[in-house]
Amino acid sequence: MQRPESFPLQGLIVSCQAPISSPLHHPSVIVAMAKAALNQGATAVRIDTPAHIQAVREQTDAPIIGLWKRQFPDCEIYITPQFDQALELAQAGADWIAIDATNRPRPGGETLHILIDQIHRQLNKPVFADVDTLESANLAFDAGADLLATTLYGYTPSTRHLTPPGYNLLEQLVQQFSCPIVCEGGISSPEMAQKALDLGAIAVVVGTDITGIDQKVKSYQQILSTPKSVRYAE
């Protein structure tokens, strides 16, 4: 697929998020993360929750991919599962609406087709479809998604045995779909990001490796606190 020079999401997109339990989960901190990323050349940022999106929007005109992680009883989908969340993201200033684009049941009986159609018709926003498999990608594309991303590869019941980044899925998406393709999930070095672009992704989304202080420190501590006898056991 050709990469149009005018397409707003190219190269490096930085996901600026933090766990709710973290002191980093504050609008001013998220804004600082986003501005630092954009100052160093990121082309867009991926932001969770309306409050954080609004705070970032007030500080930049750069593209914002908005999502809202909401948990509902007896529902596996939590990335912008309903139109109500998409509406608030758009009102807060998101340019793109990121959704879980798998075909799993949604709260209130909403469907993927209805959700994408409402985002297009009522909000006039493009849809950033997070998928996990080629099957999900087909459904999302047929429903009108504007972009496909490998975000959920390794994070759904059918893919939990797989480890992101989903390069194999990425290659399939690039070969089979005419819309832009983004690689997201598991990118932990510039070399891995470059590989995704070489495979045909128009952009890569990097989160934990750049902004995930909580998870990075936890990973260090898990290793450093392990007794040598265990670490070096044959």
How do you describe this structure in short?
InterPro entries: Aldolase_TIM, NanE, RibuloseP-bd_barrel. By secondary structure, this protein is an alpha/beta fold.
From the structure above, extract its key features.
8 strands; RibuloseP-bd_barrel; alpha/beta; TIM Barrel
Number of domains: 1
Question: What separation lies between the terminal Cα atoms?
Answer: 48 Å
Radius of gyration: 18 Å
CATH architectural grouping: Alpha-Beta Barrel
SS-based class: alpha/beta
Please provide the count of β strands: 8
Quick check: average pLDDT? Answer: 94
* Main beta sheet strand tally, sense and closure: 8 strands, parallel, barrel
- Provide the low-confidence segments as ranges: none
CATH topology category name: TIM Barrel
